[in-house]
Design brief:
heterodimer; A: six-stranded mixed beta sheet; five-stranded antiparallel beta sheet; about 55% strand; B: about 110 residues; four-stranded antiparallel beta sheet; globular
Chain lengths: ~120, ~110
């Protein structure tokens, strides 16, 4: 049972345009969400996060939107640059106290930004 | 330089031969975890540790052991590796579980 879904394995956009990466989740107990970027032969690097009490978080060219009722979040990159080409992972955290902690990643979306 | 290091980076071994992948962080982070990345499956959490001497199972703990005897180190132990443990492994750490996780460069393991 996949609780965090990234239904688009790949996405291709032109440089300067907006990239929108989507993520859906099924577990209503998730209360914190993150996006990671991964280049080949490197470990993932943190990009941006959002708490469930918010619906938007912005950091430079990156904005994450959260729609709790739809159990959907998206990452917007504006403007897209060739260096943004990477695999993007959506992740969600459920924490219920003590060491009761659950972190789940999606399968990732390969973003290609064409010059 | 703040970093998470893993060793070895590449390892080829045979079924049943015990191995340990080391993970060390120099940021005094409380939280550490291990993931494996497989094609079409994304990143899956194996084990995590919220503090010294505190470890818990993630989503795919079978066939793995961990220990957290000191804050900076979190080794992953495969007592009897099998071919289905061939994967790319990442260690990560963060100040606390909600904080940004810093990932190591990965260890590519092949079990024959």
């Amino acid at each position: 049972d996949q609780q965090v879904k990234q239904n688009s394995p790949s996405l291709s956009v032109q440089e300067g345009r907006i990239s929108i990466l989507n993520c859906d989740y099924t577990n209503s107990m998730f209360d914190y969400f993150l996006w990671y970027k991964k280049y080949p032969a490197e470990g993932p690097t943190f990009l941006i996060s959002i708490s469930s009490i918010k619906d938007k978080n912005e950091d430079g060219r990156f904005t994450v939107f959260l729609n709790k009722s739809a159990k959907h979040l998206s990452l917007h990159i504006v403007p897209s640059q060739p260096g943004d080409s990477a695999v993007y992972f959506c992740a969600a955290i459920e924490y219920s106290g003590g060491s009761n902690y659950k972190l789940t990643f999606g399968k990732g979306t390969l973003l290609t930004v064409n010059p | 330089e703040a970093q998470v290091t893993q060793n070895p980076r590449y390892l080829i071994t045979v079924t049943g031969k015990k191995l340990t992948v080391t993970c060390s962080q120099n940021m005094n982070h409380e939280y550490m975890s291990w993931y494996r990345q497989d094609p079409g499956l994304g990143l899956r959490q194996i084990y995590y540790s919220m503090n010294v001497e505190v470890t818990d199972k993630g989503d795919v703990p079978e066939g793995y052991k961990v220990s957290r005897k000191e804050k900076r180190n979190f080794p992953l132990i495969l007592e009897s590796p099998s071919p289905n443990q061939t994967s790319l492994y990442f260690c990560a750490s963060s100040l606390w579980w909600r904080e940004t996780q810093y990932f190591g460069p990965g260890t590519r393991l092949l079990v024959l």
